[in-house]
Amino acid sequence: MGTPKTKVPTPSYDKLTAHFQKISHFEHFSALGDWDQAAMMPMGGGQDRGDAMAELALHIHGLKTSDTLAEHLHGAEDESLSTEQEANLREILYQYQQANLVPGDLVQAKTKMAYQCENAWREQRKNNDWQGFKPNLKAVIDLAKEEAQIRGEAQNITPYDALLNKFEPGMTTAKLEQTFGGLKDWLPTLIQDVLTKQANEPKLVLNGPFDISAQQALGRDVMAFLGFDFNHGRLDMSSHPFCGGVPSDVRITTRYNEADFSSAIMGIVHETGHARYEQDLPQAWRGQPAGLARSMGVHESQSLFCEMQLGANPAFLRQLQPKIAQHLNCHFSAQELAQHYTRVNPGLIRVDADEVTYPCHILLRFEAEKAFVDGSLTVDDLPDFWSTQMQQLLGINTDGNYRDGCMQDIHWAVGELGYFPSYTLGAMYAAQCRFAMEKALGPIEALIDAGKLDSVFQWLREHIWSKGSLLTTDELIRQATGETLNGQYLERHLRQRYLGI
Amino acid sequence: MGTPKTKVPTPSYDKLTAHFQKISHFEHFSALGDWDQAAMMPMGGGQDRGDAMAELALHIHGLKTSDTLAEHLHGAEDESLSTEQEANLREILYQYQQANLVPGDLVQAKTKMAYQCENAWREQRKNNDWQGFKPNLKAVIDLAKEEAQIRGEAQNITPYDALLNKFEPGMTTAKLEQTFGGLKDWLPTLIQDVLTKQANEPKLVLNGPFDISAQQALGRDVMAFLGFDFNHGRLDMSSHPFCGGVPSDVRITTRYNEADFSSAIMGIVHETGHARYEQDLPQAWRGQPAGLARSMGVHESQSLFCEMQLGANPAFLRQLQPKIAQHLNCHFSAQELAQHYTRVNPGLIRVDADEVTYPCHILLRFEAEKAFVDGSLTVDDLPDFWSTQMQQLLGINTDGNYRDGCMQDIHWAVGELGYFPSYTLGAMYAAQCRFAMEKALGPIEALIDAGKLDSVFQWLREHIWSKGSLLTTDELIRQATGETLNGQYLERHLRQRYLGI
């Protein structure tokens, strides 16, 4: 795969692939260190881990900016490469350019500060300790701003665009403002219409407690049903659910609530979407930039496809229902579960939000990040900004509740500005994929009822997972769905599911 | 600490310490990768992990043999250093010399092969699959022999001495043969005498099942009683109990048996001994060679002190008894536990052996390793060698039982030849420490009964743990006990405890 039939020597390209293979070995330990810190590491190990992660980040940065690369990149341009090799070369060049934008000492300082801030945040959030968290957050945001400035200047783009590009290559603030701006036109009305419609629907009363280890066993059962390969991955607990690890060993986590199994289980369904993407990335391109997941937005589209397009589908819940009954010894009907999982309920917490109000949480964070970077918002003013926005977007008061307000997410604590838009991009890509898939295969509901869930995954494997980063995001989505990003499919999906129109 | 009162510039020494601090950051990930592989990693992740570990080992090897080090080592010789800095320089030089003995490609090949062999071994051992294991073991042993040859020639010592020195700096085959030779004179008779004495003593019947999670909770309770710091460490499960991680985050494991809690719990006591040593290494020397544990023999002396000198002490078992009763809801008397934990029972498995027959398992492995290295034993002949030796030493037949015979240990599977003698050296050092400690503090039994267990740990902290590698092994033991290694204390201990003389 990826090799032309007549083998022409490609010495420069070969040196590049060997070098990036080596980089992937070191990135293996970044991934392991991150997972372990969140899922396993005791607090007291944080300082040493942070120092070690910073050293590793600096080393990887050094490898990505190595002097010899420019020469090999130049040499490889004149070599006879297959289309896939060309794509890998494009991705290698992109990584090289991105790494060269930022000086190594800033990389190291950011990594160290992020670890320090995150470790403290885990306790501070529990204690609603905004005053304790604030100085750390300031330091992290200052470093992120410095990075944005440097990256922006070097690429001749705005600082915030430069941050977006770290997670979503090619994305711009202008494009996002246009796409997300569309949301603002129809979403508030939609939320109100759905709330009115659901006002008199019965609510599921979760009569727990539900044993945590039984919830775990149920989770593993659901993962297996969704095709998760346990020979190449694990399920664990962490305070913030995530998917980490490497494609040959994908580690997902969730958090459990004894009183309510529903969020832990749907969290697992979500992370399993991420995991399947990783586990099914192209084998032939393992360890190469072309073999990586395309972008954070596309990654999120796979998790949201699993959670929202599949997980909240009535047919999926008909499959889930007996598993819940068996593991948790409780007997909700599939109909009750479907109502529960499509209940719209404006709330404080982004990760617990339903799919209708979720984009509001992202709009808030998108506005805050832009304002941090252009200097119109300071960390001191963040709680007020948060309260005002939550009031406007969802009619919720967050005054004084920092832990469920501006301290709820890990992203800023670790200096990841520019990531949040990926969530709503993901929801849009997921809806767009669903309509394209159903055009080819018929309704997903019918497929699941017919025991053909695998054909859904086969479509995703063929059109998304197996492509890695061989195509650009726009081209990937265009080849899969017939057009580039189009936010209208999300609107169509939400109107269909929540208003039946 | 470690800095002379009048600060004289030490530029070369400072460069060395910065360089070894960096090395310790990469070694952090070796430790994490090893722990994770044994305690967490799914089988399918093994290939990538092995490749990544090999890359990391090569990188660390490169750092330890870096061209600039010779110059700084030379420069540091003329600098004005404190006694402790001199000791650190001695350890830096030793690490540099040891690393320079072996070419990087052999380091990488060994790491890769060890990971491959270990991963397969985990399944093969379960299946008693000697034929499957044999070719892997051959490859690993061949690489270990190559390493021994290269190391021996360069240091002008025998190949097996060169392997011993990796784990026990300064140890020689001659010294071991003399010390272990002494064992052969008195141990077989002692075993027979003890078996005769215990023949009619009542045996504890463990009326399980004992819930695994209850055993885990009991284990954590015992760890806390022994002063394990859970802010800087964890307890997990693995098929082969071990202590790993880094001093700020020490990871111990055990394995559980539903039918019999006693080995899991005493395994935890053993690993807690290792862990306390690591957690109490000198803070001021963290990340420097002088801050590392002294040797594998000294390390094992701390775990065996915990397990044998403390754990099997009747006073300790009087403390353990109510904890067992509480967690496992079973009511054995302290007297019954003491009989159980001092029961001598020649058996197949080294890690399950009592302290009286344990040295026989080491003698067998010591003889086999020497014979592998000098070529008088091949992997093909290992099962026969094993059977013959087990018959001679313990009167046990192991024919055809590979999983509980020559496939039981992980050490050879990962290419660690020269390590096994450390276990019996540890038992000897532990007994020697106990007699020295009791000379100063009075009997341990009385200390525990008086609630002064901490004074035992205080003695170990002062004489062993806080010294790191600031002293040579001989000097460490001499300062702690008044003399260098003396195997007679182990004999005295065993005669006292098992024959009452």
TrEMBL record, chains A, B:
Its EC number is 3.4.17.19. The active site is at 271 (proton donor/acceptor). It is an enzyme of class 3 (hydrolase). Coiled coil: none annotated. Keywords: Carboxypeptidase, Hydrolase, Metal-binding, Metalloprotease, Protease, Zinc. GO terms for biological process: proteolysis. Its cofactor is Zn(2+). Zn(2+) binds at residues 270, 274, 300. It catalyses: Release of a C-terminal amino acid with broad specificity, except for -Pro. One of its GO terms (molecular function) is metallocarboxypeptidase activity. InterPro entries: Peptidase_M32_Taq. Binds 1 zinc ion per subunit. Belongs to the peptidase M32 family. Broad specificity carboxypetidase that releases amino acids sequentially from the C-terminus, including neutral, aromatic, polar and basic residues. This is Metal-dependent carboxypeptidase. It comes from Shewanella septentrionalis.
